[in-house]
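Lecture notes, unit on protein representations.

Consider one protein chain, 221 amino acids long.
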Amino acid sequence: MTPMATAAFFDFDQTLLEVESAQMGLRMLRERKMLTTGYILKVWLANIFYRGHCLSEAGMARILLTFYRGRRLEEFEATAEAFYQNHLKPYLAPRMLSVLDDHRQAEHRLVLISGSVRYMLNPVVRDLGFERLYCTDLEVGEDGLLTGRSRGPICVDQVKSNYARQFARETGVDLASSFAYGNHPADLPILEAVGHPRVVEPSRALARIAARRGWPVLSFR
């Protein structure tokens, strides 16, 4: 019998990347004067609720996505590579790049699975050699403009583990021998779905869970 393959599922923000890609994107948009005062206030208030655990990861993402309403996806796709090279790639975590390379050397199937949006992550996939990307897609309306909503689910929480199981079914991957890397309680379902969960610079809540379950904790460097 042919042995089943092993996969390594990587979250992106504050796992493979030391910072939040959304914050870097907002900083760039603010420098380009593309953010309205109303949007900045809305995100600021939402962040207070989010940090106070009164707003979910998916809820925060939905608020951030409202920025895109009425815009064209092409304008963001056209600048995605430059944004990655100049604003994100310098913050890739050295230790996690080494872990990624270890999995590559072991011929594990590499999967990037993130709540961030597709146009922002496509350059990451190309540069780091991921086989598959699961993420949040932006909805385009009949008029060709972005609606400010996601097309399909926000890729957090249970959605991540659903995608991992889908990938395993499609590729013959054995989840019991596979690895997953995350930093936030929203990554808990996918961490629980594999045999080798790893937490990276975890939030306090995830750190407590990892300590109780004996999960390895990794640092960025």
